[in-house]
């Protein structure tokens, strides 16, 4: 990715990983970041006049939108806000990018897909159950309706979250206290390590790929199995991971149980550097370093 790219949402989970390495992107924050970040701009992404000025002043060629309301429960409780952030904002960004001939890479989610058997690819049916999935699907549609030459990247990634609230952090936090933690054995997904996700998004922005693409690992696993891997790689007993069923929970009906992704389209343009196990090890090392600071 070149210096002609701006990343919106640099303070979020995914966006924060763009700034962890020396790269010449421009980064958008709504408030001042805790530590100094080169190429940092602070503005409200809803202020399209200000964003348009940034595009012109910096002669931007591409924009990566990492802004989302991603928590399923929060979206259910705040439906209006979910659709504003996940649907309306992408529409506005797409219209501005089209106006200024800027390539948009919009980050979406595998949660837009219909729960189905087998590996799901980019042409698989969509039929989300949750407000989160429905609002993200509408965001996809708004982006590609504005221009079919834009990119929609459906992601499911793992790693250490800045707020320590990711799936990896969920297992890590409990396991380090040697507390029993639950893992869904009926929910399958294809998580890609966050550093690979960032590298793939950079590629999509710099090469201006078009249409929908799934960024996913080649190894679908259950969330229970993911927890078992975290425990084993921490050198702790896998008996600390209790097998549970998502469909038995109050909000279980909102989750797609099978999101096993076919990533063959991605593999034609990007080869992941990390397996799931290697990504978990990287995440463990990162948590241990950060916990010592």
Features:
single chain; 293 residues; alpha/beta; Rossmann fold; three-stranded mixed sheet; 17% strand; globular
How is the topology of this model organized?
Elements: E1 5-8, H1 13-16, E2 26-29, E3 40-42, H2 48-57, E4 62-65, H3 72-77, H4 79-99, E5 103-109, H5 131-146, E6 151-155, E7 157-158, H6 167-176, E8 181-184, E9 188-189, E10 192-193, H7 194-207, E11 211-215, E12 221-222, H8 223-233, E13 241-244, E14 258-259, H9 264-267, H10 276-292
Parallel strand pairs: 1-2, 1-4, 2-3, 4-5, 5-6, 6-11, 7-10, 8-13, 9-14
Antiparallel strand pairs: 9-12
Characterize the structure shown.
- The protein has one domain: NAD(P)-binding Rossmann-like Domain (Rossmann fold, 3-Layer(aba) Sandwich).
- It is 39% helix and 17% strand.
- Helix 6 packs across helix 8.
- The strands form 4 sheets. A 7-stranded parallel sheet has the order 3-2-1-4-5-6-11, with helices on both faces. A 3-stranded mixed sheet has the order 12-9-14.
- It is built from 10 helices and 14 strands.
- The mean pLDDT is 93.
- Helix 5 links the parallel strand 5 and strand 6 (151-155).
Q: Helix tally?
A: 10
CATH fourth-tier homologous superfamily = NAD(P)-binding Rossmann-like Domain
Helix content: 25-40%
What would CATH call the architecture?
Answer: 3-Layer(aba) Sandwich
Structural class label: alpha/beta
Average pLDDT over all residues: 93
CATH class: Alpha Beta
Read across the widest sheet, the strand sequence of neighbours is: 3-2-1-4-5-6-11
- DSSP strand count: 14
């Amino acid at each position: 990715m070149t210096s002609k790219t701006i990343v919106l949402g640099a303070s979020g989970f995914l966006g924060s990983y763009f700034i962890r390495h020396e790269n010449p992107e421009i980064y958008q924050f709504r408030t001042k970041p805790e530590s100094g970040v080169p190429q940092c701009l602070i503005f409200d992404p809803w202020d399209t006049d200000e964003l348009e000025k940034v595009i012109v002043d910096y002669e931007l060629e591409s924009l990566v939108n990492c802004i989302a309301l991603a928590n399923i429960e929060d979206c259910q409780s705040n439906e209006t806000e979910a659709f504003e952030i996940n649907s309306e904002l992408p529409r506005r960004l797409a219209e501005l990018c089209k106006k200024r001939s800027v390539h948009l890479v919009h980050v979406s989610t595998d949660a837009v897909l219909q729960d189905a058997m087998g590996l799901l690819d980019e042409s698989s049916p969509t039929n989300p159950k949750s407000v989160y999935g429905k609002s993200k699907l509408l965001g996809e549609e708004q982006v590609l309706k504005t221009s079919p030459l834009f990119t929609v990247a459906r992601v499911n990634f793992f790693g250490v979250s800045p707020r320590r609230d990711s799936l990896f952090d969920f297992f890590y936090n409990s396991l380090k206290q040697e507390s029993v933690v639950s893992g869904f054995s009926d929910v399958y997904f294809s998580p890609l390590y966050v550093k690979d996700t960032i590298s793939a998004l950079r590629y999509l922005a710099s090469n201006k790929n078009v249409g929908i693409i799934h960024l996913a690992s080649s190894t679908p696993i259950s969330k229970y199995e993911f927890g078992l891997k975290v425990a084993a790689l921490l050198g702790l007993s896998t008996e600390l991971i209790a097998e549970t069923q998502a469909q038995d929970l109050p909000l279980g009906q909102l989750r797609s149980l099978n999101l096993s992704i076919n990533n063959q389209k991605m593999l034609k343009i990007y080869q992941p550097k990390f397996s799931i196990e290697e990504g978990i090890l990287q995440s463990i090392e990162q948590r241990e370093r950060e916990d010592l600071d």
